[in-house]
Amino acid sequence: GSVVASYPYDDSPAHKPTGVYSKSADDEVFKYLAKAYASHHPIMRTGKPNCPGEEGETFQDGITNGAQWYDVEGGMQDYNYVWANCFEVTLELSCCKYPPTSELQQEWENNRESLLAFIEKV
């Protein structure tokens, strides 16, 4: 896990594991939507999720092109965009895939304004 908004493409023609920006035809729209979410999240907007084992990982403005972060061949985000014209942004909301119950209220607080801002873009 991490704390970042990721947008297409997740796959790249080179299929390198990381570091290849894979621009879609709607790249600017995807960046706009990802920033709409990230800019309202207190951790995500810093671009420094500080996840255990990945403390040095950073994301400018709290967003990333999927393939630039890590290449995912055959992912649903790309499939839905290419074949169904469905615009998806993947939201990584926590360093921990399954946060304990005691942290859920804080997770809600961290994401409430981001969710509202994202819904407003619809």
TrEMBL record:
Annotated spans, Disordered: 1-20
Keywords noted in UniProt: Carboxypeptidase, Hydrolase, Protease
Annotated InterPro entries: Peptidase_M14 (IPR000834), Peptidase_M14_domain (IPR050753)
GO MF term set: metallocarboxypeptidase activity; zinc ion binding
A GO BP annotation: protein processing
Signal sequence region: none
GO cellular component, one term: extracellular space
SUPFAM superfamilies associated with the record: Zn-dependent exopeptidases
Peptidase M14 domain sequence ranges: 1-122
Active site, UniProt feature: 92 (proton donor/acceptor)
One Pfam family, short name: Peptidase_M14
Family: Belongs to the peptidase M14 family.
Name assigned to this protein: CBPD Carboxypeptidase
Biological source species: Aegotheles bennettii
Lineage, broadest ranks: Eukaryota, Metazoa, Chordata, Craniata, Vertebrata
Gene name as annotated: Cpd_1
